[in-house]
Each structure stands twice: as structure tokens, then as C-alpha cells.
Automatic annotation (TrEMBL):
InterPro entries: Znf_RING/FYVE/PHD (IPR013083), Znf_TRAF (IPR001293). GO terms for biological process: regulation of canonical NF-kappaB signal transduction. Residues 119-161, 173-230 form the TRAF-type domain. It comes from the Eukaryota. Residues 248-275 form a coiled coil. Pfam families: zf-TRAF (PF02176). Keywords: Coiled coil, Metal-binding, Receptor, Zinc, Zinc-finger. This is TNF receptor-associated factor 4. GO terms for molecular function: zinc ion binding. A zinc finger (TRAF-type) spans 119-161, 173-230. Signal peptide: none annotated.
Length: 296
């Protein structure tokens, strides 16, 4: 049964949150936990300040009129006893020296119970949700390091393309999205080229791609890897030259043949020119004879 209403968002100075049970006994429903105190209470103190109902150190200490019984405000109320605030008891409780309940997580704070609430709000060992929404609950003093170095939602820069992506997707970005990541040539030449340039590399510079010999037009059907072309040209130089010579002779024959045809055509042209000149002479003579006749 609750010693105080669970609807309250604040109990004295100490906020109700998931760590409430670290400050109060009975799962957060009773007085202060005795193990928060730095020094053991004297028997007299314990007699006066420990609540008989919850065995915690009285919270909002009250005292009953009839029996002068002391205890937590709500513990006494639940017991059905008429009680009034007990100022002296409250002051004694507030003055007790205590430590932070998160000392087991490394908080070294110590002070008086009256100041525990104020410290509680600022305690760096309290856990909060990550500010980058990764849903992890982290001690406040570790959030900065988490956000900078470990949070899966932190922004990281791709070392290859410079794009900024979330850390949790960087490996997928590198494996499947980034076009600048160095990629080994699939033909096995040993070169690494940016992913976007792989096909251009294969087409224009990869030494492990077979290409036809530059003397293909004159009959060398050999196809060698681009890297071996120089060697092939040196090795097969005599064959290439022989083929070149044969091709040259073929071309020379064709050239001579063409020249002969041109000369023949030139001759025909001269003959035709002469024939035309003769015909013009005859025509002019006839037309001048006809005009002489007309004048006579
Ligand atoms: Zn109590
Ligand atoms: Zn603390
Ligand atoms: Zn995070
Ligand atoms: Zn990238
Ligand atoms: Zn290659
Ligand atoms: Zn060749």
C-alpha cells in the first residue's frame, strides 16, 4: 500500500522517476533508505527517526498526539492515527549526512539529506535516453562520449565519397551505395579503381583484357592482353613486316592499274576533244556558206 499518492510527480524535493526506489524503502513507497547514511545512527536517533511502519528514515516526519508515536506522514495516516508535522524530527532527518544512491555507479557526492533532491537532479550517474534517439539508456556523464563515438545514429563521413551518413548504415553505404570506394579490377590485373570507373578501366586501360593486334587489317588475327601487346609487336615483327610488304605490293598493283586506266581515259578525252573541234569546224563552215547564199 502506498505511503503517498502515486499521482504526485514530486515528493518533497526528490522527483519520482525510475530511480525512486534507490532513495526510498519499500519499492519507493516508504521513508529514506537507511543505507544512504554515511554514519550509523545512535540508538536514540534510531528510536526517534526510523519509521515503525516501513523501517525507513521518516519522510515528512509526523508525531501522534496521543502516544507521541513518530513516523512518516503517510505511514501514520495509513495506520489511521491522527498525526501532526513534527518539525524537530524533520530538521534532524534533513541534517543527516548521506551519500548519493548511485555511488555504486561511481558518484562520489556526499551531503545532507536535505540536499539529496538537488543533487539528484544533476547527478551525472543517472541514466537518460540517448539524445540522438537510438533508444539506449546511458549514464549522463557517458552520453557525450556515446554520441561522439559509439551511437549508431551519429553522423560519420564516408572516407571515399565524403558523404555524411549515419554510422549504422555506413557499411551498407560502402558495400552497396558508394561509387568512389576503391574496387579491385574484376579482370585480376591487380589495380584498384573507384567503383564508378571499373568499366572505363576495363575498356581503355586494363592490361588483362584481350584486344586484337593493331595489324589486324593486314592479316594478323592474333588477340593478346593489352599488357602483352608490346611484346607481341616485337616478337612478331618479321611476320608483321612481311604482311605489310605483301599488302604494299597489292596496293602498288592496284595503284598501277588505276594509273593505266586514268591514262587510257586521258587518251580518249583528247580524241573526243579533237572530234568535237572537227565537228564545230564543219558546222561553222556550213552556216557561213548558207548566209553567203542568202546575201547573194
Ligand atoms: Zn514510513
Ligand atoms: Zn549522484
Ligand atoms: Zn545513441
Ligand atoms: Zn561513400
Ligand atoms: Zn584491370
Ligand atoms: Zn599481330
Amino acid at each position: 500500500m502506498a505511503c503517498y499518492s502515486t499521482e504526485d510527480s514530486e515528493i518533497g524535493d526528490i522527483r519520482v522517476d525510475e530511480l525512486e526506489s534507490l532513495v526510498f524503502v519499500a519499492g519507493g513507497r516508504g521513508g529514506y533508505r537507511p543505507d544512504l547514511l554515511l554514519a550509523k545512527m545512535t540508538n536514540v536517533e534510531a528510536e526517534m527517526l526510523v519509521c515503525n511502519c516501513c523501517n525507513g528514515i521518516t519522510w515528512e516526519a509526523c508525531i501522534t498526539d496521543e502516544l507521541h508515536k513518530t513516523g512518516c506522514r503517510d505511514c501514520l495516516k495509513i495506520s489511521g492515527l491522527n498525526a501532526r508535522p513534527w518539525e524537530k524530527g524533520r530538521k534532524l532527518v534533513e541534517g543527516l549526512a548521506c551519500k548519493c544512491p548511485l555511488d555504486m555507479r561511481g558518484c562520489a557526492w556526499t551531503g545532507h539529506l536535505r540536499d539529496l533532491g538537488g543533487h539528484w537532479d544533476e547527478c551525472f550517474k543517472r541514466r537518460k535516453e540517448c539524445t540522438l534517439n537510438c533508444k539506449q539508456i546511458i549514464a549522463q556523464d557517458c552520453i557525450a562520449a556515446h554520441v561522439q563515438r559509439y551511437c549508431p545514429n551519429r553522423a560519420v563521413t564516408c572516407q571515399y565519397c565524403g558523404k555524411i551518413v549515419q554510422a549504422r548504415i555506413i557499411s551498407n553505404h560502402e558495400a552497396n551505395v558508394c561509387m568512389e570506394i576503391p574496387t579491385p579490377c574484376p579482370k585480376g590485373c591487380g589495380y584498384q579503381v573507384p567503383k564508378k570507373s571499373v568499366s572505363a578501366h576495363i575498356q581503355t586501360e586494363c592490361n588483362c583484357v584481350g584486344i586484337p593486334c593493331v595489324f589486324r587489317e593486314i592479316g594478323c588475327d592474333v588477340s593478346v592482353n593489352r599488357g602483352d601487346m608490346q611484346e607481341h609487336l616485337l616478337e612478331d615483327c618479321p611476320q608483321h613486316l612481311t604482311q605489310l610488304m605483301l599488302e604494299f605490293k597489292k596496293m602498288t598493283g592496284k595503284y598501277e592499274e588505276a594509273m593505266r586506266r586514268i591514262e587510257g581515259l586521258e587518251r580518249e578525252k583528247t580524241i573526243m576533244k579533237k572530234q568535237m573541234a572537227d565537228r564545230r569546224g564543219i558546222y561553222e563552215k556550213i552556216t557561213s556558206d548558207e548566209s553567203d547564199d542568202a546575201m547573194n
